[in-house]
Amino acid sequence: MTDLHINGWFVAIVLAFVLLWKLDFFTTLLNMKSFKSQVPAEFVDVMDPEQFEISKDYTRVKAVFGIGVSIFMLVVFFSFWWLGGFGWLDEKVRSFGYGNLVNGLIYIGILFVGLQILTLPLSWYSTFGIEAKFGFNKMTPGLFIMDFFRGLILAALLGAPLLLAILWIFESVPMAWFWGWVVMTGFMLISVFLAPTLILPLYNKFTPLGEGELKDEIFAMAAKCQFPVKEISIMDGSKRSTKSNAFFTGFGPTKRIVLFDTLVNNHTVPELVGVLAHEIGHYKKRHIVKGILMSIIGSGVMFFLLGILKDNRALFDAFAVKETSTYVSLVLFGILMQPVSQILGIGGSWLSRKHEFEADAYAAEVTDRPEAMASALRKLSADNLTNLTPHPAYVFLNYSHPPVGERIAALRD
């Protein structure tokens, strides 16, 4: 170890990271021990015993890989920290002779790119090892690398200006936390409008749903729901994976419901209408708006805390950084907030699960076909090799959607 100060910040951060890792490890073990020997009764028509065993194996392999990744990342983080990496990098960047704004871009940029490169082999193995082994991966190595560089370019084009604005505000403006929050909120809202029209098309091709029974049924259902649907698109998700999904994105004129092509190919019209009704349910119940408002409020709290902790000498000492600066404050605050975000995320996941139940109920009511929605969920679970018997503790900590068995039971209630 170098010139680290073993103070309250040091102890608190180490304990938080280690204890949360142990909690995740313990619940992951519980989840793997919760496997049942027989296919649950409501899935016997879509999943045979052999496929059920494969789904358990898929869950087990992903869990073991996840544990390995978490151990590796903890070791790398603690090693870089305890060897004085944060302070050493700051001194190197300062030696270039630039001002704080450019220093901030370089410092945070190096850490960001370094993290992306570090995790690239892990992502590669997950895609071409695990996902390919279980028949999900359709991505080519060329597309994988292209996605990686696309992500870096987008981070530079969108993230660098935002970072510069935040750094300048905290260097120059009174009540910096408030104005930083305003800028971040504006960026979040703009992103909601930009994502469907500018960002998502960089990764996938979106084709308007063609004429036919499916389109007629969907628009009839949308009219019944008084949902102002602008466009229903088919996304070529099959070029990356065989897994199926659907999602709702955008607001106002950019509002769009998206169906994966794999979803359309594997489901009946009533099932697809049920899935679309579920997505419309999120809109009608204002789940998206509530989620954005919660993000804005959470962002405000984070900026307020950042304003308090910025340039905290004891925190800099715990990371062996000699000179205080806004950009290092941002990095250290981000590290400090990771455990806090994990804990707060439990509440967010609980709310998300509640919203899923509400959207399911809406779909069952408006279509008057709860069994069609249940059938779609059963098929999706079989096609995606979903763990059908997750442990409640693991669900509580990690699931943003309720276990599919609980969703089907609620639909039939």
Strand order of the largest sheet: 1-2-4-3
Q: Write the H/E string, N to C.
A: HHHHHHEHEEEHHHHHHHH
- Main β-sheet: number of strands, strand sense, barrel status? 4 strands, mixed
Taken from the alpha-carbon principal axes, the silhouette is globular
Amount of helix: over 70%
Structural notes for this entry:
With 413 residues, the protein is mainly alpha-helical. It has one domain. Helices cover 71% and strands 4% of the residues. The protein has 15 helices and four strands. The protein has a four-stranded mixed beta sheet. Strand 3 and strand 4 form a beta hairpin. Helix 9 packs across helix 12. The radius of gyration is 24 Å and the shape is globular. The chain starts with 7 loop residues before the first helix and ends with a helix. The mean pLDDT is 91.
Keywords:
4-stranded mixed beta sheet; 413 residues; mainly alpha
Note the topology.
Elements: H1 8-33, H2 49-82, H3 85-94, H4 100-133, H5 141-172, H6 176-199, E1 206-208, H7 213-224, E2 232-235, E3 246-249, E4 256-260, H8 261-266, H9 269-284, H10 287-309, H11 313-318, H12 326-367, H13 370-383, H14 392-398, H15 404-412
Parallel strand pairs: 2-4
Antiparallel strand pairs: 1-2, 3-4
Helix pairs in contact: 1-2, 1-12, 1-14, 4-5, 4-12, 5-6, 6-10, 7-9, 9-12, 9-13, 10-12, 12-13, 13-15
In short:
With 413 residues, the chain is mainly α.
